[in-house]
Design goal:
OB fold (Dihydrolipoamide Acetyltransferase, E2P), five-stranded mixed β-barrel, 164 residues, disordered N terminus, mainly beta
Length: 164
């Protein structure tokens, strides 16, 4: 139809190590420079800490830690991507200002070579670059699973789930 891809959407894309990741623009409330992060003692590694933005306390998630990448050096270019409602209390920390790009959905593939990853949707930009899209709800479900595993008492396998 006049060269328009029917399943094209706008995304914010950002680079982690050698790959592009993104999130649907419709899930984004705002992008802001990342203020000083305060660590949360005992929090799982995927929670980088908390920040105050416009008088609100925001929990900052680190996608590099979540995906098992080596930690990048801290930079003054890091930004927080705040999620839209109902997740306005959460932000994703990315290494630099993300780019807005149109992308279209490709077949979802499980990528070898990485430990367990949240559900990633495979999309391609107009110039055919792959972008691994993390939707807020699937990312949070993965985070909750990882936190539950981290909080499980030693020696408990989590298999069976019986009471005795």
């Amino acid at each position: 139809m006049f060269g328009v891809e029917l399943h094209t959407d706008l995304f914010l894309k950002y680079r982690l190590e050698t790959e592009w990741y993104g999130m649907p623009l419709e899930e984004v409330l705002r992008i802001t420079p990342l203020p000083r992060i305060r660590a949360v003692p005992g929090a799982p590694a995927i929670i980088r800490g908390i920040v105050e933005i416009r008088g609100r306390i925001i929990t900052v998630l680190d996608p590099a830690r979540l995906l098992g990448f080596s930690l990048p050096r801290e930079s003054d270019r890091e930004v927080a991507i705040l999620w839209n409602r109902p997740f306005t209390h959460l932000a994703l920390m990315v290494p630099e200002l993300p780019q807005v790009c149109p992308a279209r959905r490709e077949q979802v593939r499980n990528r070898p070579g990485r430990n367990r990853r949240p559900h990633l949707e495979s999309w391609k930009t107009e110039d055919q670059e792959p972008v691994h899209v993390m939707r807020c709800r699937s990312l949070l479900a993965f985070c909750e699973e990882q936190m539950a595993l981290a909080l499980r008492p030693a020696g408990q396998s989590g298999v069976g789930g019986g009471n005795g």
